[in-house]
Amino acid sequence: MALTITIPRPDDWHVHLREGEMLDAVIGYTSLRFRYAMVMPNLSTPIATTDQAITYRKLIDQATPAESPDFHPLMTLYCSSQLEAIDLLHGYKEGIVKAVKYYPAGATTNSKSGGSSMMDFAHIFTTMQDAGIPLLVHAESTNPAIDIYDREAAFLEHELDIVCNNFPEMKVTVEHISTSAGVDFVNAHETVGASVTPHHLSRNRSDMISPAFHADLFCKPVINSESDRRILVQTVTSGSPSFFLGTDSAPHPTKAKYGKEAKAGIFNAAYGLEVVAEIFATENKLENLAAFTSENGAAFYGYTPAEEHLVLTREQVEIEVATHLSTESGNEVVLFGAEEASHWTIQASID
Ligand SMILES: [Zn+2]
Questions:
Q1: What is the Å distance from ligand 1's center to 1 Cα?
Q2: Residue-wise pLDDT tens digits, 11-59
Q3: Which single residue of 108, 211, 218, 312 has CA 20 to 30 Å from 77?
Q4: C-alpha dist (Å) from residue 203 to 63, 224, 288
Q5: Whether residue 150 lies in the annotated active site
Q6: CATH code 3.40.50.2020 for 3-348
Q7: Which of 11, 12, 228, 248 is catalytic?
Q8: How far is the CA of 16 from the centre of ligand 1 (A)?
Q9: For the sheet containing 243-245, what is the strand order?
Q10: 3-state helix, strand, coil in the chain (%, to 5)
């Protein structure tokens, strides 16, 4: 018998929608499947003001396919020297800005405007704690002396822990946790939650570099060890309320991924849900899938789960699925998770 599970329409608490022809090419994958999408602000010109967020939001709305059932992009501002507390507070009160994203300078795509020390932004965090504005953190040390697989743990210990101690009431999301250290950090702090990606749940670092380097699995923070992956899987499949789905879908054209310097980022808006469903099915924990994809994140950010539902079915036969998308000018992007997607169908439930 085919395996079937019904879940409230999921939310994506971490997504890169890009701009220009890439936005046009990828937006439908998110808007046709997800309800809320926490939109990352690291465009080539970072989104750091309420006006910029309004403009970006309009571009997203214009690009969104009309048949998208119930899609709401949630805008974030980039924590940089351009960010002003007064403007942030204004944007938040107007309902335009939902959160602030902190990037360590140089950690990933378009992060050069980021910070070198989190506490340099203490004046912003004071406003955020008082107003209840969530802080979203790319937690990865950029210290070249630290081994790349230890950089999440190092950042949590040397940067974020200090912020959380100084601002104990501030709502903080550790984005795309990749290690057991990330899980431990979240569990040790009451006001801290974490997004977890389909790729960190389903692949390990051996998959990335053995038998050869797979640029398609290169992302930041890098996919870590099998033991870290196991702990992530156990944590999210347990239904623990502090952990929720953020795909970190981050499209790059293959010519940039496969170039001399591979771009960090994995496009998984298309099949991230299938990848996650496959993990929960393998672990015999499908009953906790909705908590991870549709309930925990909503509760963390102060929303109720979607009323609409999706029906996910694991099919007996393999289905043929697309492996790439093409932008208008012919750039190709690899769709992560085609293997898992070939086993699942997902449809809106007709109640
Ligand atoms: Zn990201």
A1: 38
A2: 999 999 999 999 999 999 999 999 999 999 999 999 999 999 999 999 9
A3: 218
A4: 32, 8, 20
A5: no
A6: no
A7: 248
A8: 6
A9: 12-15, 36-39, 72-78, 97-102, 135-137, 172-174, 192-196, 243-245
A10: 40, 20, 45
